[in-house]
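Throughout our pipeline, every protein is held as a single compact record rather than as scattered files. This encoding replaces a full spatial description with a residue-level series of whole-number codes. The remainder of this section carries one protein's record, kept here as part of the documentation.
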Amino acid sequence: MRQGGSDDSPKFSDDFKRDAVAQITQRGYPVREAAERLGVSQYSLYSWKKKFAKASSGDAEKDAEIRRFKRELLRVTEERDILKKATAYFARDAK
């Protein structure tokens, strides 16, 4: 977890930082909650996220694709709901 250091500020290993970043990027924990749980500042988490995001551009592409799919799913779900309401409306008028 922590690496030794002579100054007062804690030093964390890259593995610890990657795991912390994974908690907010892959597992969906809010930054504030993860920071409190891990005993680090929110600033540190954002800094680590930025650092390790540069190293894994493939993950950024996957995240962008997931966001696109979520938007598409929302649009299609809204269309389905509108069509359901229209079907019910026209079925009621047909009687």
